[in-house]
Amino acid sequence: MKKALKFALVQTIPVILGYVVMGIAFGLMIQEIGYNFVWAFFISALVYAGTMQFVLVSILSGGMNIFAVATITLSINSRHIFYGLSFLQRFKEMGSAYPYMIFSLTDETYALLCGTEIPGDVDKKKATLLISLINHCSWVLGCTMGALTGQLIQFNTTGVDFAMTALFVVLALEQWLAADSHLPALLGLGCGVVALSVLGPDNFIIPALLVAVIVLLALRKRGEPA
Q1: Which residues contact 179 (CB under 8 A, 6 or more apart)?
Q2: CB of 73 within 8 A of CB of 42?
């Protein structure tokens, strides 16, 4: 367990830094509309969806019917369906941790689990669980800290959310350097650019993912490296 914990901590440092900063931003925003740190703690612990939590601030402050909330949530988080498909077997092998692993599969956790090679002397299941758990705890910590200090610290949070963009860039570069084939990355980039130009920033994610998955499956059936 000590080896797994040490390994997981080292791997999650970039995500911890990004999550704490972004979590503080969310905590400040939720506190500004009248919800204290208790709300921030439970929202971050039970919802645990970075982008959707920021949307939730607008929902709570402006009001929205349940159908609209469900539709927005599905459109924002439906990409996780594609993430989960590649981890079905791996998560099933983790026994009782299986439900939590599904719940905790965020963008950053997915990137880490995909791009991290766990050494042979480290328990793979424990390391995988700890990576997810540490990321989750760092997000909860950041959100709670932000709400707790929201009334004491006054500063402009404009641009703080760029921390997550920078984090994605770092994770993408690490996976690019570690990958044997760059075809999936280039294919995903190409599908994203085309879908963005055709459908716009609000509707491009799901079509781009669908096309990329279909093409990769077709290449795999033909026996080409993908």
Answers
A1: 185
A2: no
